[in-house]
Amino acid sequence: MKILLSTPFDISYPGGVNAHVLTLDRELRHLGHQTRILSPGAPDGTIADDGHICRIGHAYPIQANGSVARLALSPRLSRYVQPFLDQEAFDVLHLNDPLTSTLHLAVLDCSRTANIGTFHSSNTSRLGFNLLFRLGRPIFAQFDKHIHGRIAVSPTARDFIANYFPGNYELIPNGIDFQQFAKDVEPDSRFASDRPTVLFVGRYNEPRKGFRYLLRAMARVQAQIPDARLLVVGPGNPAAFRQQISRAGLHSVEFVGEVPVEELPAFYASADVFCAPSTGRESFGIVLLEAMAAGKPVIASDIPGYRSVIETGSEAILVEPANAKTLGDAILTVLRNQSLASRLAEVGRERARACAWQNIAQRVVECYERARKPVSDGQPTLVPPSSLFSGTRRP
What we know:
2 domains; alpha/beta; Rossmann fold; 18% strand; 14 helices; six-stranded parallel sheet; 38% helix
């Protein structure tokens, strides 16, 4: 098949949806399919095409969910999208968060083939989608009905979008590069000692990541295990936490900064336990799966996005969000109980194996094939909605 993978966010900037698109693109090509990627972010706001990634429309930075999302907002993108789709003649258009960008609305506006939507968002305040969908539901519904296959990455993502646009949503979780994280690697040379090590990976400056609660929990841990250390990997400003660290009498808090994804396994190898203390607004816990694949026991907040990763309840320890005492006690329990740590690591690794990208990509392809069936049967289901955008349209 010839497949277009589209992201609503400027592909030049890292993020969960963009990482999903780039990795799925790679896996689909490994399966023998021909792919291209569509993203906003053309320098002059028109079109920029390097032969694999096509950028259409300017991407505007919007403060959202504690970070910055770069989205296309122009209502006049159909005049660029239509010639691109005509020239490429894709078999499948796969849009991620398909109703959150004018670029994606333009694609649905111009499409005459099978349209797949993957829904990642699960938080009612993320990008203001709750208000946006409530006020704009009659308009968005005209586009939503031309999505022929629906995928949600988690039950929370499904429940959120289905509240506004009911339909049949197939649950296909985010994938991980299982082999990359499961392979045997040496710990990072800076942290190769036998000291009990707790690992955090993520954008720790964002309040929803709950890092401040992990610092409070570490004060409890270090009071009982003085040589325990906290290893922090990811972008952020350590200075913002210096006062809290000093006040709590914390020591051995190591801020590494952001590292390339290929270096992450060495940091997992340096840790004894992985913690994800987010307070909410997570649609899926991809970082939990990475730690599980690396064979590390996981302690995470009991929030909907993380519960979607924990299928049997035995893959990780879930604790009350924003509760430093409970989090600290869980860390102490795992550090002191090697049998428990080993059991968590073993069950967690099998859960991560099920989410290997090879398995996820094959499930996505099966979704494509089901959505394409009305096309091959000649059913008249692929007429685009009435244009709400100006620009060149197919007659």
